Amino acid sequence: MLALAVAASFIASVAAHATFQEIWINGVDFGSTCVRLPQSNSPVTDVTSTAIACNANPSSSNGVCSVMPGDQVTVEMHQQPGDRSCANEAIGGDHFGPMQVYLAKVDDATTAVGSDANWFKIDEMGMPSDSPDYWATEVLNDNCGHYTVTIPSDIAPGNYLLKAEVIALHVASSPGGAQFYTSCYQINVGGSGTASPPTVKFPGAYSASDPGILINIYQSLTAYTIPGPTPHATQSPAVANTPWPTTATWNTALQPSTVPTVMPSGAGGAPAPTSKSASSSSSASHSSAPASSTPAQTSSAPVSSGTGTPAAKYGQCGGIGWSGSTACQSGSTCTVVNSYYSQCL
After folding, report:
1. Least confident of 128-142, 220-234, 277-291
2. Is 175 found in the same domain as 54?
């Protein structure tokens, strides 16, 4: 039975490869404006290759997406380029495994080399339930390929690379069998944080013999060791002993069918710094606020004067179902983006 299961997974893998292609910031669709798109949807399998950092020869990008500490950033994965349909699994073929997100502070996000950068992890999900075994990739599929993390509130401002990664373990019972699907996004973090978390290198952070990389998942597991360092300022979800809920937390009804290639209106995409001096300047939610089906078009009218602790500029301040603050910090106004999302602009 094991041999049949492995063989079936191997055959299915031919049509089930995937890439991280889009990014959302606080529920606003930034599309592919700041991602280094992989050349193909094939995985990296050599943990000693420089491609383990940001994939094999990804396309360059001039875009840098602006975020603030505490912002919600959602990465989006699909099997084929430009396909955003929720009718298709984000990554299929029983490609079960963990999901991880890293950051690396760099001088210029548009030119930084991922394999030269120093990375720290900000989020991870492995096997959130063992009743039955349920994997982060299945949670990703439940949510139409969307996975949301929080930008740590204490990190220093400047340009960063954000690395989103899935490790598919369906044929990982032999060395070199684990499949790494990763993309790097170019972002600029604002704020005034000072934290400089411990870092790792890619390649270097993983070994082909790590227990979370060399593993037979076709058995009943009660725990899973996620590869890489401990996340900064957050913890991996504990393994639940009850069935994992499969209901989407991302509003799949509002999933767009097209991919924006320009920054949303009013989003304030940040230019990359041109020198080192120019660059001086959490816990994961695993769920997502309802999202716009089109690039944001802001209204000139504020929602209200607002109540609660003022949200940072570009933070969410309203929308259907929103229960947080409706006030904004001085210099920004709570502005309607769509009925589900208002932002401090």
Report:
1. 277-291
2. yes
